[in-house]
Amino acid sequence: MTFSIVGRSADGAAVGVAVASKFLGVGAAVPAALVNVGAVATQSYANLAYRPQALALLGTGVDAESVVKGLIAADDGPVSHRQVGVVGATGPGATFTGDDCHDWAGGVAGDGYAAQGNMLTGPGVVTSMREAWLGSAESLPYRLLAALRAGDQAGGDRRGRQSAALLVVSQGRGYGGTSDVWVDLRVDDHPDPVAELGRLLTMHSLYFESPDPDSLLALDGDVEAEVRSRLASAGFTGTALDDELASWAGVENLEMRIVPGSIDPLVLAHLRTVTQAGQ
User: Fold this and answer.
1) d(Cα 134, Cα 150) in Å, to the nearest integer?
2) Fewer Cβ neighbours under 10 Å: the N or C end of the chain?
3) Closest alpha carbon to 50 in 86, 101, 3, 17
4) For residue 278, is pLDDT > 70?
5) What is the residue extent of each domain of the chain?
6) Does pTM top 0.85 for this prediction?
């Protein structure tokens, strides 16, 4: 009773899953991903053992289609009610929908992706996801979200909305470069979970990603004067501007966007917002 997409970035460096459902906390059950290996979504009468099993098979070099066949062949449960999508580090994705999954149920797969869903309003949900995926050139988290949003707008789960999740892994892309988990966001119970997931992803990008080097503003002239003034109004009055800006940014959870001698326009915008009352 879920729709999802598993996908790989164009450069092969990232893999992930986006999923939504009329189900509490879908992110705790459906998605799994491992850097440089692949991603899997298990749903309908989900077999959560598919997650480690699929990743283990992908890790030995088994292609996505063979992984799906292996999962189904080894499952002694209600296979006709299962649904699963798999994508590896290379090659096309693969999807399976059991004959007894609730209508509408089905999936599509191609190079680097697989989209699937069950108990949907119709096949247009999956078709819209595929079109959005193929039409997007954004980074993998936003590309997966675009596909999920398209499926939601096409009708999504015919029972309604409740939860959504996004999981993306890429080597060293996690917080401070100390993790491979690039994005791990969950909306467990919300009237509009896909929209809320989009809001959280925007916040995640602000707080946990590094700035575009080409966008940085030099901390001199009018920019320096404004930043000093605004930091002073927030209680950061030291003479070393880089140090004071970094200290303030740490309080605001923006430390990932600090570059000595410069300021990220997004950081400046946030500084303006939080100090506006004092200006």
Assistant:
1) 12
2) C
3) 86
4) no
5) 2-208, 214-278
6) yes
Across residues 89-110, what is the average pLDDT?
Answer: 97
DSSP string, the chain: -EEEEEEE-TTSSEEEEEEEESSTTGGGTSEEEETTTEEEEEEES--TTHHHHHHHHHHTT--HHHHHHHHHHH--S-GGGEEEEEEESSSB-EEEE-TTSPSS-EEEEEBTEEEEESSBS-THHHHHHHHHHHH--S-HHHHHHHHHHHHHHTT-BTT---EEEEEEEETT-SGGGS-SEEEEEEE-S-SSHHHHHHHHHHHHHHHHSPPPGGG-EESSHHHHHHHHHHHHHTT---S-HHHHHHHHHHHTT-GGG--TTEE-HHHHHHHHHHHGGG-
Tens of pLDDT, residues 18-64: 999 999 999 999 999 999 999 999 999 999 999 999 999 999 999 99
Residue at token pair 């080894």: 74
Instruction: Quote the pLDDT of residue 102.
Output: 94
pLDDT value at 279 more than 90: no
The mean pLDDT value of the chain amounts to 96
Query: Do 185 and 194 contact (CB within 8 A), yes or no?
Result: no
Domain 2-208: CATH superfamily, name plus number: Aminohydrolase, N-terminal nucleophile (Ntn) domain (3.60.20.10)
Cα distance between residue 106 and residue 261, in whole Å? 53
Count Cβ atoms within 10 A of the Cβ of residue 66 and give its class: 0-12 exposed, 13-18 middle, 19 or more buried. Answer: middle
Please report the pLDDT score of residue 277 as a whole number: 62
Q: Are strands 94-97 and 82-88 parallel, antiparallel or unpaired?
A: antiparallel
Q: Tell me the pLDDT band of 239, cut-offs 50, 70 and 90.
A: confident
